[in-house]
Amino acid sequence: MGNNGKQDYNTKYYNLDMIISIGFRVNSTKAIKFRTWANKIIKDYMIQGFALNDEIFLKAKIDKLVHHSVIMNI
What we know:
By secondary structure, the protein is mainly alpha-helical. The protein has one domain (about 1-74). The chain has helices spanning about 15-25, 30-50, 55-74, and strands at about 1-5, 10. Strand 1 (about 1-5) and strand 2 form a beta hairpin. Helix 1 (about 15-25) packs across helix 2. The longest helix is centred in the middle third of the chain and has 20 residues, at about 30-50. The radius of gyration is 19 Å and the shape is extended. The protein starts with a strand and ends with a helix.
């Protein structure tokens, strides 16, 4: 069960091994996109030792720059 401060909601949990095995066995457009994405994440992790969520990282960086520019203009 999760809680976002306003309401409670149920969260489903899936076994990662199951998701990966199904994603690599199915032959569809979504499965191909999943395999491409999964292979990129695995490759990044193997090379760098970690993987970043680029979308969240970029948003945090932009938020920090905006915050910094607001402070500098005060």
